[in-house]
């Protein structure tokens, strides 16, 4: 359908031109591994008090995981830790097929959650969000550099 084509175009655009690609020189560093394929995301976040003041991601992943990371960084930049965790929760629920009254807050990422419901895609689309959750759970400690499995 036309709508499916639009979603696909948005996803391909994020994958081809990822927003906030790279690595910050300061901040919290989290490496998150997708054990089903071996792909890795490195998320760096700079927290100013409670706010995500800067964010970047690198590593290597498939189209879906790269697009998801790109969308996630756009959505959570400038948000508080609590707001970002709530958005991660909405995304996780949508990937499992649940509707959420607040899903519009996810912007383009709600399309991506929709297309990544297939079991083999869930770990791809949630990789970046899991890295985000881990970064917030560590408290945004600048000394922290950890490796995790999604
Ligand atoms: Fe940075 Fe959109 S590219 S907020
Ligand atoms: Fe590895 Fe999608 S196939 S993250």
Automatic annotation (TrEMBL):
Q: Which InterPro entries match?
A: NIF_FeS_clus_asmbl_NifU_N (IPR002871)
Pinpoint the NIF system FeS cluster assembly NifU N-terminal domain residues.
7-124
Q: Which domain of life is it from?
A: Bacteria
Pfam entry (one):
NifU_N
Please give the name of this protein.
Fe-S cluster assembly sulfur transfer protein SufU
């Amino acid at each position: 359908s036309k709508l499916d084509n639009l979603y696909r175009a948005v996803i391909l655009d994020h994958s081809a031109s990822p927003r906030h690609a790279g690595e910050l020189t300061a901040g919290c560093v989290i490496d998150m591994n997708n054990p089903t394929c071996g792909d890795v995301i490195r998320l760096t976040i700079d927290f100013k008090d409670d706010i995500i003041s800067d964010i970047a991601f690198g590593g290597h992943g498939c189209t879906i995981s790269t697009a998801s990371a790109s969308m996630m960084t756009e959505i959570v930049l400038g948000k508080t830790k609590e707001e970002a965790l709530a958005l991660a929760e909405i995304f996780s629920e949508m990937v499992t097929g649940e509707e959420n009254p607040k899903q519009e807050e996810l912007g383009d990422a709600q399309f991506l959650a929709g297309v990544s419901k297939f079991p083999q895609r869930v770990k791809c689309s949630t990789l970046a969000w899991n890295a985000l959750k881990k970064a917030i759970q560590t408290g945004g400690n600048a000394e922290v550099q950890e490796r995790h499995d999604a």
